[in-house]
Design a protein that fits this description.
The structure holds two protein chains of two kinds.
Chain A: H1 5-14, E1 23-27, E2 30-34, H2 38-47, E3 59-62, H3 72-88, E4 91-93, H4 100-107, E5 114-118, E6 131-134, H5 137-146, E7 148-152, E8 156-162, H6 171-182, E9 191-195, H7 204-212, E10 221-223, H8 228-236, E11 256-261, E12 268-270, E13 278-280, E14 293-296, H9 304-314, E15 324-327, H10 332-340, H11 343-349, E16 353-354, E17 375-378, E18 394-397, H12 400-409
Parallel strand pairs in A: 2-3, 2-5, 3-4, 5-6, 8-9, 8-11, 9-10, 14-15, 14-17, 15-16, 17-18
Antiparallel strand pairs in A: 1-7, 12-13
Chain B: E1 2-9, H1 16-19, H2 31-34, H3 46-49, E2 55-57, H4 70-77, E3 82-85, H5 90-98, E4 103-105, E5 116-120, E6 125-128, E7 133-136, H6 142-149, H7 153-160
Parallel strand pairs in B: 1-2, 2-3, 3-4
Antiparallel strand pairs in B: 1-5, 5-6, 6-7
The chains are: A alpha/beta, B alpha/beta.
Chain lengths: ~425, ~160
């Protein structure tokens, strides 16, 4: 019997053959925490009584959720994390460097790696064929101390992708459509593995968006095969030597297969307050919904490709005066490239507000908190009640193209209106 | 070991943003203070009125969303002795065990808000004294039960040094 990607990667790190359903202890390639989960992880690590990190050069701390700091309590958390990094020898990414998962995608993730992070969107690395999964602070503290953790090898749901995304339709629409099909708990404890002829039509940016949101269907991870697109991504960051081909065996045992023909997809949005509440934006329910804020940001959708898509629609226009429009690049690297390409200049002239690379408004800490009754169209990953800092506000999720069209019109808008 | 307390009933899809909202993010290094807002966006009166020994009783996919372990911690610090749900989100379930908070899967339709419950964790059985029903829960997997019985993952590792190979 062949192996799924999850079985292959966990098996390699457990140094034995493993099958779905087994509980195994595996060696890790990378572990990381961010400023919301890091302080607790560091306290738990210190409480374990170990005098050193198991793998200091592969233990990362990111100051990204509250960057720059909006409050003294968080400034003290940042201070503690910086001091821990200095004394323990792990690697610190400070405010302005960007969102943890984006930096991991640029600098660390590679096919076949096993990664844990104290952040639920650690599954983003599945875009390059790395098994990444989110855990809590104590799990990661133990990983920091021992270099290993335990896994229940997940069953796999295979997503068979064919066709290609049509004009105005993006990988965000693909993954929202999939979550709508599965439901918010449709893949709980499972691995979502993408295969099929259509995968070659998705670049690593697209794949990262899809893998990132696997957790929104409850999945432990979302995994793409490693192919020429993966190699191109690694080469872009000078890491071509970290590439290897990696794919699930054709006869691997999967719990079920879901087929998606990308030719048939349309722009969709997730309506408040659940990610699986997915509707085509052309639905009557979306017509005329006034939007007070547009947020182009987060680990899901603010890489350079996303900013290009957004800018192409906004270029030469003004965003709606009733719609505050925020752009938070996913990383310093993305920000620099957008500057080089003239995208930031164009967007600032269009009335867009640019923020420090990081998590920004997504998580409701600062940088775009909503007022009572306000509605936001965000390219991020969650629209739970209270997610963006106010339980009396409403969050809609959509693609960068939908965000751009919506920013111009001031109401939920099908991006294909701007692509005729 | 038996625990007794009242049931606080919640619906499906209680997210970590309901349990430990992002607007209290700055309290994450002050857990006692953060616990004063446990589940506040699901039931506003809960953190004010919950009593030590009470139980959280929910529907499907309890704890979906973020990896914030603080969500499990604030429920525990609020005095809750166990959470019952029809199903749990993966990261929350693991976090709850890691911080020593029992989480049990059962048919929670049998329990109403305010019912008096007795949990026998050894038998994974909850008795609803108010309606007289006895509800069998799915046992916690043995490996996770060892972590829970140690008091959580940090204690487990302190006791044993590492995971069993």
């Amino acid at each position: 019997m062949g192996k799924t990607l999850a079985e292959k990667i966990i098996g390699e790190h457990a140094s034995r053959d493993v099958n779905a359903g087994e509980i195994v202890v595996a060696n890790l390639d990378l572990c990381y925490v961010q400023d919301g989960t890091g302080p607790l992880a560091v306290r738990e690590f210190n409480g374990l009584g170990r005098d050193r990190l198991a793998m200091p050069d592969r233990t990362l701390i990111f100051l990204d959720h509250a960057a720059p700091c909006p409050r003294q309590e968080l400034a003290n958390d940042h201070r503690m994390l910086r001091e821990f990094a200095a004394t323990s020898g792990c690697i610190l990414f400070d405010i302005g460097d960007g969102v943890c998962h984006q930096i991991v995608l640029e600098r660390f993730a590679a096919p076949g790696l096993l990664i844990v992070g104290a952040d639920s969107h650690t599954c983003t690395s599945g875009g390059v064929g790395a098994f990444g999964t989110g855990m809590g602070s104590t799990d990661v503290a133990v990983a920091m101390a021992t270099g290993e953790t335990w896994f229940r090898v997940p069953e796999t749901i295979r997503i068979d992708v064919t066709g290609e995304l049509q004009s105005g339709v993006h990988s965000k629409d693909l993954v929202l459509h999939l979550i709508g099909l599965l439901g918010a708990d449709g893949a709980t404890y499972k691995s979502l593995e993408f295969a099929g002829q259509g995968v070659a039509n998705l670049d690593v940016n697209d794949r990262a968006t899809v893998a990132n949101m696997a957790v929104e269907a409850g999945a432990k991870t979302g995994l793409f095969p490693s192919d020429e697109k993966t190699k191109a991504h690694l080469a872009r960051y000078g890491r071509e030597q970290e590439w290897r081909e990696l794919r699930a065996d054709e006869d691997a045992s999967c719990e079920k297969t879901i087929a998606i023909n990308m030719n048939d997809l349309v722009p969709v949005v997730s309506l408040p307050h659940y990610v699986d509440n997915v509707k085509p934006i052309a639905d009557a329910e979306c017509a005329g919904v006034k939007i007070d804020q547009v947020f182009l940001g987060s680990c899901t959708n603010c890489r350079i490709e996303d900013i290009r898509v957004f800018e192409q629609i906004v270029r030469g226009k003004r965003v709606n005066p009733g719609t505050r429009t925020l752009l938070t690049p996913a990383s310093r690297n993305v920000f620099l490239q957008a500057l080089d390409e003239g995208l930031i200049d164009s967007l600032v002239k269009a009335g867009v507000t640019i923020q420090t690379p990081g998590c920004g408004a997504c998580v409701g800490v600062h940088g775009g908190i909503l007022g009572d009754g306000e509605r936001c169209l965000a390219t991020s990953n969650r629209n739970f009640k209270g997610r963006m800092g106010n339980p009396n506000a409403f969050v809609y999720l959509g693609s960068p193209a939908t965000a751009a069209a919506t920013a111009i019109k001031g109401e939920l808008t099908d991006p294909r209106e701007f692509l005729q | 070991m038996k625990e007794q307390g009242r049931a606080w009933k919640f619906g499906d899809g209680i997210s970590t943003d309901h349990i430990a909202p992002g607007r209290f993010y700055h309290l994450r290094s002050n857990l006692e203070e953060l616990a004063k807002y446990a589940l506040v966006d699901a039931r506003e009166e809960f953190p004010r009125e919950v009593q030590p020994g009470d139980f959280v009783v929910a529907g499907n996919n309890f704890g979906l969303g973020s990896s914030r372990e603080h969500a499990a911690i604030v429920i525990k610090l609020a005095g809750v002795k166990a959470v019952f749900a029809k199903s749990f989100a993966r990261i929350f379930y693991r976090n709850a065990i890691n911080v020593g908070l029992p989480v049990l899967v059962c048919n929670t339709d049998e329990i109403d808000d305010g019912d008096r419950l007795i949990l026998d964790i050894e038998k994974s059985v909850v008795v609803d004294e108010t309606n007289g029903k006895s509800i069998q829960c799915q046992p916690i997997p043995p490996f996770m039960r060892e972590i829970l019985d140690s008091g959580g993952l940090a204690d487990y590792i302190r006791e044993r040094g590492e995971f069993p190979k």
